[in-house]
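RECORD TYPE: inverse folding
INPUT: structure tokens
STRUCTURE:
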């Protein structure tokens, strides 16, 4: 049975473990984020604490199947003049490799869509790395269409 739930403070170690696995997987893609430094446990804990302190903007979801946490989504609510209201930014979606191919990713996207609608969002937006063709195909199969935009980043 698949279940989606909001992350709680006591989920911090599960969330950290999943986010660390996600980062390890993504960094292998041509050092995408230019971040080869090991992220400390303290840094992850601080990030989790900050995210949990902003419930009006940031939502952390966990996905469970067969009573085990198999993935997460990190979401951000923004105001968009293009939608004349709120939009949901899907910053990260991760399903453990051993849980992929079983329909959990599509179930997670559906849950995220319902969550965004319940928050009054008019749109979901996200980016997918060019080095991740499986993700791009997954999103297209789920009914999402790519938009030709550039993603700019500057680290401080």
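DESIGNED SEQUENCE:
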């Amino acid at each position: 049975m698949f279940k989606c739930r909001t992350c709680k403070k006591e989920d911090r170690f599960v969330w950290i473990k999943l986010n660390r696995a996600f980062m390890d997987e993504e960094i292998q893609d041509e050092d995408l984020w230019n971040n080869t430094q090991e992220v400390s446990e303290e840094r992850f804990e601080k990030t989790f604490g900050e995210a949990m302190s902003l419930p009006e903007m940031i939502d952390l979801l966990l996905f469970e199947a067969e009573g085990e946490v198999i993935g997460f989504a990190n979401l951000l609510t923004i105001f968009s003049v293009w939608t004349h209201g709120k939009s949901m930014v899907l910053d990260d979606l991760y399903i453990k490799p051993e849980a992929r191919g079983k329909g959990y990713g599509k179930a997670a996207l559906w849950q995220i869509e319902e969550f965004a609608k319940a928050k009054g969002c008019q749109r979901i937006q996200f980016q997918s790395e060019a080095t991740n063709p499986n993700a791009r195909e997954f999103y297209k199969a789920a009914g999402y269409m790519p938009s030709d935009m550039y993603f700019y980043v500057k680290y401080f």
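NOTES: The chain has one domain: 2-141.
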